[in-house]
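Run: sequence + NAP -> complex structure.
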Amino acid sequence: MKGCRAVGIAGGAEKCRYVVDELGFDACIDYKAGNLWKDIKEATPKGIDCLFENVGGEIFDTLLARMNAFSRIALCGLIAQYNTEPYPMKNIGSVLVNRIRMQGFIVSEHMERWPQALKELGQGVATGKIKYRETVAEGLENAPKAFIGLLKGANLGKQLVKLI
Ligand SMILES: NC(=O)c1ccc[n+]([C@@H]2O[C@H](COP(=O)([O-])OP(=O)(O)OC[C@H]3O[C@@H](n4cnc5c(N)ncnc54)[C@H](OP(=O)(O)O)[C@@H]3O)[C@@H](O)[C@H]2O)c1
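>> structure
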């Protein structure tokens, strides 16, 4: 949104530099640096009004403690919680106290809007308004290595496997 401060969260200094220098975010938090609460607090001096949540677990829980009154959360994914025990959220009370509106969504429920979305996204890429990176592994034999790298965050941008 125009005029809003945008803060990203990415794993590692190189990805954070990319998010700020190339994607134009105002700040980026390296969640692997070990100072999650301090870094989130410094990056969001006025709290958080809108959160697009992709990760879950400790990061989401910590962000909950920075949400403003009447703020909103679009709950897209909980990737940190998929292969582990359920995460015991400590700050869920923030949803009540701050009257937060949280809405989950599943992209396949909106298939009727795909043609419009693809058109707009395609135009965004063609005009350079949308920037992206890909990490491409060559050949099916390199897919397992690429997958393991993905779980460790070795990829920058979308991890693809090129079948040759
Ligand atoms: N609601 C829907 O309809 C819908 C549809 C598709 C996907 N999703 C969800 O959207 C999210 C992103 O999907 P994607 O396809 O964009 O995935 P992706 O390209 O593979 O990106 C996943 C990123 O998540 C970060 N990550 C992974 N494990 C993490 C952890 N334990 N803690 C913190 N960060 C972690 C990594 O960031 P770093 O590299 O910076 O470490 C990784 O690059 C997922 O949660 C997925 O389930 C939702």
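>> summary
The longest strand covers residues 67-75. The helical segments are 13-21, 36-43, 57-64, 93-97, 114-127, 143-152.
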